[in-house]
Structures are given as C-alpha cells and as structure tokens.
Write a structure and sequence with these properties.
Layout (H helix, E strand, L loop, with lengths): L3 H12 L5 H8 L3 H9 L19 H9 L5 H10 L6 H10 L8 H14 L5 H7 L6 H13 L2 H15 L3 H8 L3 H20 L12 H11 L15 H10 L6 H10 L7 H5 L6 H13 L5 E13 L26 E9 L4 E7 L4 H14 L5 E5 L9 H10 L2 H7 L3 E4 L12 H13 L7 H21 L35
Helix pairs in contact: 2-3, 9-10, 10-11, 10-12
Length: 513
C-alpha cells in the first residue's frame, strides 16, 4: 500500500513529465506493476480498515438497555452479562460505557438544573418569577443586580451571577461547574466570597498592585546599582550577578525576584551578559564623582550652564542599514562590502538647562578639538557667570594641555579682557558613558538621519546633520520644558542627568566608543 503523497508523485510523473511506468518505478523504488496499477486509478483509495470483532458486540444492545435503567452501574451490568455468557473483561465493558455516556446528566434532577440555568442565561425567566423561586434566599436588590450582570455583564460576571443564582436555588456546585465549564474549586470560591463579602465583594474587579518590573522606583534603583561597581557595595567581584542585585535591593528594603530584575534589564534593551561592558563603571571614586555632579546640577543658577560633551564617530558615509517599513515579501538588504564615501567625526556639547546642542566637525579626536569647542562655548556664553564641562574619561579629555588652557581662561586677566565665564570641569567616572547625557541625543540623531541613509558624499551628510540640530535647537528654544521630545530627538530617556538613566542605546553601534 502506497501513501497519498506517493500516489500524487506517480500521477505527476506520468501525466506532466510523460514518464513510463518502468521509469517511475525505478525513480520511486517501486515495482512497475504497482506503478501501472495506480496510474489507472483516477483517485487515491486508502487502506480499508476492517474493525476488529469484540466479545462485547453481541451484548451491546443489552448493555444500552441496562444503562437506561436508573441506578444501574457498570459493575452490576458486568455481573448480569457474565450470567448471559459474556466472556470478555470488565475493562472492555467499562470503556464502551464511558464512550457511550451522554453529555447531558442521566438523572432527571440534573437535566432540569441544566435547563433552568440555560433559561437564566437566555433571559427566558422573568424577574418576578425568579423572585418567587428564590424567595427567602436572595433579597430583591441583590437579585436585580445579578439579573443585570447576566444580561449585560462580561463573561466572568455573567458566570458568577448564574452560579450564585443556581446554588441559591439548590443546584449542586458540581452541576454548576459542568454547565459553565468552570473549575469546581472556582465555583466554591465564588460562593464563599458571596457569603462573606456580598455581591459587591464578588463582582468588584480586584486590580492588584502594579508589577515591580513596571514601577519606576524599582527600575531606578536597579540601574543605580548596575551603574556602580560591585565593590561599591562590599562585593568583591568584577561584574554583577542576579543574586547580588537581589541582595542589594533587599538591603534597601526593596524585595524583588531575579525574574523581575532580568525583565527590567531586558526591557531597557540590554542583555545581562554585556553588563560588564555597558552597565558598570569600575571607577573606585564613582560615588564621589557622582555626588559632585548631582550637587552641581541641584544648585545650578540661572547664570550658570552645564555642558555634556562628547564626540560622535568616526562613521563611514555609505549605505546604512536599520529598521524600516517594508511591503509583504520584500526584504531590504545592505551590501556587506561597500566603498566608503568618506568618514565624519562630530564634536558636540549639549547644554542641559536649555537643551541646546553646539557642534562642529573634526578631523580627529584629540585635545586640540576640545580646546576648539571650549573656545567656541566661552565666547558663545559670554553673559554667563560660570560654565561646567562634563565628559567621559577619554585621554584627550584629561590632558595637561587642556587643564593648562582652562587655568589660563580662568585667570582674572583673560576674563577681564574677553568677558568670558569661569570654566569648571566635572568629569564623569571612568567607563560611565551611560551617564553622558549627550549620548542619548546622538542615539536619537542616529536613528533619525543615519540609519537607512545613503548620502552621496560627506557634504550631503553634514547638511542633514546641521539641519537636524538646528531644528532641534529651535524647537527647544520655543518649548524649553519639553526636553527629550520624541519628535526631535527620539531620545531613549529625557536628556537630564539622572543616576538611573541609560542614555546610550545598546543597539547604537555607529558613533563614539
């Protein structure tokens, strides 16, 4: 006997490819007589299964008659059949009775209970009739509310109402459970709740507390822990473990499970295997530097400005990939090997109080570019009393030449001559790019104008970047309180300094560091 798939293949080979039976037989490893036989048949004929004869066959009519007699069970029927000459086993009889068991209750009381509950759900019993049937069981106000839930309520409320009405009438919980297809324990719980809390306690929707993984205070606490090295909490390890995070949270009287910690980190876009590279600073003075920066920002005066400084790039100007809307069946591809049209490095500073970006393009990353940015900003903000520079621990951010220039700018002679503000440096902890707020702006810019781009040359790319920041600055000039607006920045987090922030996009590969 061949399968239906083999039959279709034989027909295809014979009718479409015009193969001979012998050729088809060799191809499919069949006998040529078999192939010739199935070629002649227009349709596939499966194997005819002849049911096996059972020792119970001749007694089945008698069993069905005995089953209709009230109170007769399978063991009693088995004993009667033995007297009639039945030579089969009890299991054969039991299996047949279970398969032939009707879906509806056999006893008359169960059938009436089902019919009554069905009429309740179909609103075929009037309110006055129900008041008579349930007199002394439910008061008129409770009954009216139950009827309202049956007619207009959601499925869960309707099931609860039907269950309480049926139990009040005297229907067993097991019959109610079978009719509503609801677990017996759930029916019992509903009845207990109604007896102790009334209809209000039964029907009210108990909205539990929000999940810890959705609460902002738990998210901020976990990221503030991850941003510090384990040694800051007395743990002699180089990277965090789930158990360590849970223990530190418990020490803060914030109990949380490992599953919730994993979910918070994952929803932020990170994977725990990268925690050492992305989420953790190994600076031994992390806490001290962090407190200095937060202290500056908390006491920032109107005539003071705080700048987050960094470089974006170098990145190649070529066809870039990214997420985009495509039609069904369409697959966007990016060549792995491309000829670069040039590369760009952008040096920029984000002023946090007004959310303004100052940028220019550099040939390389070094101290000279930082001095250039410093000079631009001190003359752009001449009316300010003091400006702060905050950047990561790159070597050219902490060179002797830079510190000497800052000392020169802060001299009384230089300030009196040029009317420039006092410059203060507030470096970030080492390996703490996640605290550099401008990284969030770079991530938004990359998604908006770099991903899915195909600029023809460097000048085209510069033009779009300039326009992006010009429009962004213009928007935040008009709306100074709407920092981080998605229309302009698409920042992952608001561009404000926060210990729990994750400014750097974990999927953002183009750019600095």
């Amino acid at each position: 006997m061949i399968s239906h798939a083999t039959f279709c293949q034989i027909q295809h080979e014979f009718q479409n490819k015009h193969q001979k039976p012998a050729q088809i037989a060799r191809r499919l490893n069949l006998h040529k007589t078999t192939v010739a036989k199935w070629i002649k048949l227009p349709n596939y004929i499966g194997r005819k299964i002849v049911p096996r004869r059972s020792k119970l066959d001749e007694f089945k009519p008698l069993v069905m008659r005995l089953r209709k007699q009230e109170g007769t069970n399978a063991m009693q029927i088995y004993r009667l059949l033995i007297g009639q000459g039945y030579a089969g086993s009890y299991s054969i009889l039991k299996r047949f009775i279970n398969n032939e068991r009707p879906c509806f209750p056999v006893n008359l009381a169960g059938l009436h209970a089902r019919q009554w509950m069905h009429k309740i759900m179909q609103c075929e019993i009037s309110t006055s009739e129900l008041q008579v049937q349930l007199a002394g069981k439910l008061d008129s106000e409770t009954l009216a509310r139950f009827i309202h839930h049956v007619r207009l309520g959601a499925l869960r409320a309707r099931n609860k109402a039907v269950a309480i009405l049926a139990i009040s009438k005297g229907v067993s919980m097991r019959s109610v459970s079978r009719f509503l297809f609801v677990n017996h324990g759930t029916i019992s719980k509903w009845w207990w709740t109604f007896q102790n809390a009334g209809i209000r306690g039964l029907m009210e929707f108990r909205r539990g507390k929000p999940k810890k993984s959705d609460q902002v205070r738990y998210k901020d606490a976990i990221f503030s822990i991850l941003h510090a090295p384990p040694s800051a909490y007395g743990l002699y390890r180089s990277s965090w473990r789930m158990d360590d995070i849970v223990q530190v949270m418990r020490d803060r009287d914030m109990r949380i499970s490992k599953h919730c910690v994993h979910r918070i980190i994952q929803e932020a876009g990170y994977r725990f295997r990268k925690a050492k590279k992305v989420l953790t600073s190994n600076d031994p003075d992390y806490r001290q530097k962090l407190q200095e920066i937060t202290g500056i920002l908390h006491n920032l005066k109107p005539d003071e400005k705080f700048f987050s400084v960094d470089e974006y790039g170098p990145f190649a100007v070529k066809l870039q990939g990214g997420r985009s809307l495509v039609a069904p069946g369409e697959f966007k591809t990016v060549p792995q090997r491309q000829k670069s049209k040039g590369s760009l490095i952008m040096t920029a500073a984000l002023e946090l109080s007004e959310n303004q970006v100052t940028h220019f393009y550099s040939e390389r990353k070094n101290t000279d570019e930082m001095l250039k940015l410093l000079k631009i900003l001190i003359f752009k903000y001449t009316g300010q009393a003091r400006i702060y520079f905050s950047w990561d621990a790159a070597s050219w951010h902490a060179s002797k030449k830079l510190y000497e220039k800052v000392e020169e700018i802060n001299s009384s002679q230089y300030r009196a001559k040029h009317n420039t503000p006092l410059v203060k440096l507030a470096p970030l902890p080492s390996c703490a790019q996640f605290l550099n707020v401008i990284e969030s702006v770079f991530s938004g810019m990359a998604r908006a104008i770099i991903h899915n781009s195909d600029y023809q040359n460097i000048n085209d790319c510069k033009t779009v970047i300039d326009r992006y920041f010009a429009e962004r600055n213009q928007h935040f000039n008009a709306h100074p309180k709407r920092a981080g607006n998605k229309i302009w920045g698409k920042e992952l987090v608001p561009p404000v300094f926060n210990e729990a922030n994750n400014c750097k996009d974990p999927l953002y590969r183009s750019g600095s560091h």
